[in-house]
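Allow me, if you will, to draw on your knowledge of protein folds for a short while. I have a record of one protein: its chain in single-letter code and its fold written as discrete structure tokens. I remain grateful for any guidance, and I place the record below:
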Amino acid sequence: MSNGARDSGLARRHAALPIAKHRYIGRWTMAVLTLALISWFVMRLAVNPVLDWAVVGEYLFSPQILSGVRNTIVVTLLAEIIGIVAGLFLAIARISSNPVIQTLSWFYIWFFRGIPVLVQLIFWFNLGLVFQTLSLSIPFTDVVLLSADTNQLITPFIAVLLGLGLNEAAYDAEIIRGGILSVSRGQTEAAASLGMSSTKTMRFVILPQALRVIIPPISNQLIIMLKISSLASVVTYRELTTTAQNIYSVNLRTIELLLVASIWYIALTTVCTLGQDLLERRLGRSLATPPKSRLSGTFIGRRKAGRI
């Protein structure tokens, strides 16, 4: 019997053998135990006589809480925008060939990542203790163009924006820099061979390709920003946590108001997560077209247009 016939017979016998599926007993056991533990905790929380769920329902959509939710959303979005814009410039400066700009960017990132956000918020809120007035003047002269009282200028809202936004810029800068460095150097060389300037190369070639790497961690930073915005309570900014604290300091329903705040934070985080998933899918579809398909599409489009 030839080797080919023997191998063919073995293959047929192997194909006829029953396939035993792995049962993953340990995995299913852990899943059942986890669900049982979660169910037990939820039931204990739901039937706890100490908790007054009517208070939770009363304040869940109260005007005070909704105002806190609105302030939380506003400060989160604005601080994240500041972080992304400033982080983009810091990332570009970080990979710059200019050693002075590169060093300044590195120092900024090192400095703000080294100081806790809570300390930064308290510092900006108490800036008036160091500088009674903030002024804009012509250097080396006594000519003052603009001047303002620091305590009037640095409101709780401005202090929160400065503390959260400038701190976020340091982290976003490293995320964006990592995305830029993930793009092949050949892309830059190809753009240079076409006569594109470094600015156009960054804008039209590098950044669009880096988005796939940048979007997921930046979206995660937005969710983190949403939660650390609760630190604004230390500077009396009336976001969600501060509003809940003000209410339970009067009616003494601490846990109920914390549950109200938690429900809103979970809801907002869920919206951000769904938005992130949608954005990643759309970005993935736009970048997933293989080069051959893109070339074919371009060729067919030009042919239909009568260019070739």
The domain at 62-136+143-285 is CATH 1.10.3720.10 (MetI-like fold). The mean pLDDT is 84.
